[in-house]
């Protein structure tokens, strides 16, 4: 792995100021620390930083100069980096990615709340125990196992995907053409029915059910004709 902190890449800088513009040759881009544990890409000319860029988002794509075929990357309002050498452009992309990664980690550290502490000197500690006061009488506890929660009929876990939506659309089209009750199937009804079929299949260890079983399983979900249509999918 490259040591990007000690690396640098070469580029030219295209500067625009009002209606004037010019090219500065021989710039070097380096990765260096900035304030508040942040990092930046510094554009140096003769060892002096003239421009800088703090990477807080992914690298924006560059463009190609149609005459020189050099890679161009806009770094600021009035300056653009020009990379005649594609190898230097590749190195710059690695440096930008590293800069963005370090700034992202630094931002996470800054946003982590740090609780305050109060030191208690031993000579001032009398050993008296402080009574514990419960702030709330209500605690949320999971009384069911994961399997029991999954099989609970009041919890609908099935979630329609795009294939299910297409399937339901075809059922409705066929039902409307045949004037049957299957066209009454809604998305909510579809998910509840599939959820019940999956749970019953797990409990009974089989995926074949009689008409009577389907009627008992789907009581209150939808019409028997609609549920039978879903069962036969």
TrEMBL record:
It is found in: Nucleus. Transmembrane segments: none annotated. Keywords: Nucleus, Transcription, Transcription regulation. The keyword Ribonucleoprotein does not apply. Residues 105-199 form the Enhancer of polycomb-like N-terminal domain. InterPro entries: Enhancer_polycomb, Enhancer_polycomb-like_N. Belongs to the enhancer of polycomb family. This is Enhancer of polycomb-like protein.
